[in-house]
Amino acid sequence: MKNVFKIIGVATILLFASCNSGQSLQEYFVDHQGDVDFVAVDVPSSLLDKENIELNAEEKEALESIKKVNFLALPLNEENKARFEKESADIKQILGSDEYETLMKFGSNGTNIVLKYTGDDDDIDEVIVFATDQKKGLALIRVLGDNMRPEKMAKLARSVEKGKIDLEAFKKIGETIDID
After folding, report:
1. Sign of the CA dihedral 13, 23, 89, 87?
2. Which residues, at least 6 apart from 13, have a Cβ–Cβ distance to it below 8 Å?
């Protein structure tokens, strides 16, 4: 009987250890929001100037599905290059889990951006944008919403990339971390 209890105890410990195998993205955000090296901003969708943006129907639907945006950035400087590399690796490890599906990747001239999402193919729970720039630093953005669709979010991301969308709420964030 003692052996049965030992086996159940070991199995329980292994079960709990396997369930908590790493840090979640939300935990990463919470852990770094108070960090003086990071810039952290939570932006409700009401700050997005939706009325003055010229979008097609799919892009508008994608923008309307956004409820909140969490922004976390580590500006790069001479003193924190090692930390930049460590934090980039930590984020890549988190986003490398099976929980996140890749939506798209793009980059050039030392800047790399990856868009990932969680949820079903027909109903995204969150979109994650992870950007690194070898001169400016890293940015991690969580876009939370309702009924977000992968193909529409990808089109919206392309609109942002092309400069079609001027997100006024993010200009000050960009200035803070010296983004052109």
Report:
1. negative
2. none
pTM for the model: 0.72
Long-range pairs of 168-174 with CB within 8 A, sequence gap ≥ 24? 168/47, 168/49, 169/43, 169/47, 169/48, 169/49, 170/43, 170/71, 173/39, 173/41, 173/71, 173/73
Amino acid (one-letter) located at 126: E
Residues 6+ apart with CB under 8 A from 170: 43, 71
- CB-CB contact of 47 with 169 (8 Å): yes
pLDDT per position as a tens digit, 46-57: 666 666 667 777
CA distance 25 to 36: 19
